[in-house]
Amino acid sequence: MTHEETAVLNSNILEQTAFKQITYQKPERLKKEPIDSVISSKTIYLTFDDGPSYLTNQILDILKEKEVAATFFVVGSNLDTYKDVVKRAYISGHTIALHTNTHRYNEIYASLDAYINDLNTLKYRVKSIIKETPRIVRLPGGSSNTISRKYKEGIITEVTNYLNDNHYYYFDWNIDSLDASGKVSKEVIYNSVVNNLKVGNNIVLMHDTNTKQTTVEALPMIIDYAKANGYTFARLTKYTPVYHHHINN
Ligand SMILES: [Zn+2]
Predict the structure, then answer these.
(1) SS3 189
(2) Where along the chain do its domains lie?
(3) What is the whole-number distance in angstroms between the Cα of residue 207 and the centre of ligand 1?
(4) pLDDT digits (tens, 9 = 90+) for 10-61
(5) What is the CA(193)–ligand 1 centre distance, in A?
(6) Could you tell me if 76 and 129 are in contact, meaning their C-beta atoms sit under 8 angstroms apart?
(7) Is 207 a residue of the active site?
(8) Is 245 a catalytic residue?
(9) Residues near 174 by beta carbon (within 8 Å), at least 6 away in sequence
(10) Which member of 49, 172, 179, 208 is catalytic?
(11) How many other C-beta atoms are found inside a 10 Å radius of the C-beta of residue 166?
(12) How many A from CA of 99 to the centre of ligand 1?
């Protein structure tokens, strides 16, 4: 074996070790039963924003049945009502990630301090449930949103610099399920996702709120299509290559 081959072999072993650590990371107190999080050349990261909600348990049932890992970008104001659901999602091996404590654009985008306060409040609330510090973040509206400009010009640049400098990993999406708008049929959601899947990382934006029944209905259809077409599913971690929109503030 040449030096080069040995180096490649070693880096493969390293990668596999790193992968094991990602998948089977155990927190101090909560016992986790991780489900498959398989990274391949065709990977789907299902992400659910704005939960937990009345429907989260149904989402978790589907993910469990299909053995698929996902990521939940939670909102702090829902945590008291659905604390057990968050715990269940975490123990099942999904990523609990930070969206916002209040989801009030006029407050969180008023200044960098206001954003940091909101983020920290949510971070400590989540940590008190899962006993681990969450590091994965999604900005309300995504990093390309132009609404924030109304409250403070340039705020997204400030916020993303802060996140990058403070060991957070923020993720936008490259597939929109279109389930954010009012009443969307499960067919529209299904088609919006499966027609846009491609080789590489597919980060799918979905929503987990009390009214998103059609998202829940589309979910098993999306998973079945993806599996039949050679895609694997994984959760976002700090090892996932970040995907960012263009900042437009
Ligand atoms: Zn949101």
Answers:
(1) helix
(2) 38-233
(3) 8
(4) 444 434 434 434 444 444 557 676 676 788 899 999 999 999 999 999 999 9
(5) 18
(6) no
(7) yes
(8) no
(9) 201, 202, 203, 243
(10) 49
(11) 10
(12) 7
